[in-house]
């Protein structure tokens, strides 16, 4: 009998630990696209559904400041943040041996999704794209809808070349109204599509100025003066994509998050695309206090909609 009681206790202990919550917050290199690429996985409970965040840029890293805009998501999802090739820790580990193209990054994204689904034995995941990340996100949603519970498009790029043209015209009008001769002179040097990072710098400088964005000009100038040409070429390639024509329909749920004051990825183009898109399950959310950086301007609302609405409507 003592042995029997011990066996029962052992079974109960093992059963309890098998269903116990397993938290994680770890970073590692995984082989993606022929190179080592750095990811961070964080969750209060790894049995929760996977959520992959595709950051902006291209070239930006979000791992170090992830808690600011994903702390609540980490309680409800197994969150994955990725340093794409030529960014963050991935760039420290290795530079890309092949040219940077949208297609190459799209392949990387699909390989990472496949890796995550296999590692965690999951049929699907949630995909969040922000800014540049929406180029990859929308392409994945079109080609691999069965891999996704939903695609969340944050500041979706639709026709970025047109968006930049609209922005340039708007900035020139604002500069003329303000009688800002410096702005008028610098904006006269800008052409769309951009031919160099100086033009992109002037466009962003006066966008931030006329929207009262507190980014110091010295910081902005330093950023664009050191921005790699390979990423600039990649950004220009992405800007030429017109998703209205390239992705007219989707087979997976899509949720658009747009800043009411976003003129970088123009909110009017985003809403127009949402209206035209053929999808059985599509939704649009305005972020009234935001411009382009929705997750960082309104992080609580950003997370709340994903947890309280997207998850509840799509996790089946």
UniProtKB/TrEMBL annotation:
Q: Which GO terms describe its molecular function?
A: peptidase activity
Which InterPro entries does this entry report, sorted A to Z?
AB_hydrolase_1, AB_hydrolase_fold, AB_hydrolase_sf, Peptidase_S33
Q: Which UniProt keywords apply?
A: Hydrolase, Signal
One GO term of the biological process aspect: proteolysis
Query: Coiled-coil annotation: which residues?
Result: none
Is Cytoplasm tagged as a keyword?
Answer: no
Domain named AB hydrolase-1: residues: 49-298
Q: What residue intervals traverse the membrane? A: none
Stated family: Belongs to the peptidase S33 family.
Q: What is this protein called?
A: Alpha/beta hydrolase
